[in-house]
Amino acid sequence: MPLASVSILGPVAPGGAEIPYFLPSVPAGFPSPAQDHIEQRISLDELFGLHRPQIYLARVGGDSLQGVGILDGDLVLIDKAAKAKRGDVLIACVNGEPLLKILGGDQHQVILLSANPKYPPRYVLEAEDFQVWGVYVGLCRQGRHCG
């Protein structure tokens, strides 16, 4: 799949459930006795701003953004109210095709960039229909299925 395409899944419905949060961090090596002490409980809704109506989910298809840690099959959180600026990962729609890319270019030329050297930049031509559908603000990945 040459471009990081996206499947729009829709708005995120707040769940309200709280989960344990360990401070300052959980070691990735040997377990620590300190893990028995939960410091606080947090809501993922609050942490990721999921209660905001402008946040929606999209599933990534493709590997063109693997250089910035966004992999095929990931779920990305998109803020449709955020103003896109150069260097942002965003969902752009070019001629009706939604793409997940990095915004490049300047005020005269829009360039959609990959983060994988296999894929060239996508120059948006003046005659093409171009829209920004939102800016990437977060990532969800299922750990057991990571390659």
UniProtKB/TrEMBL annotation:
InterPro entries on file: LexA-like, LexA/Signal_pep-like_sf, LexA_repressor, Peptidase_S24_S26A/B/C
Pfam families: Peptidase_S24 (PF00717)
Record SUPFAM superfamilies: LexA/Signal peptidase
Start and end residues of each Peptidase S24/S26A/S26B/S26C domain: 25-137
Signal peptide: none
Domain of life: Bacteria
Coiled-coil ranges per UniProt: none
Protein name per Swiss-Prot or TrEMBL: DNA polymerase V
Taxonomic source organism: Ectopseudomonas alcaliphila
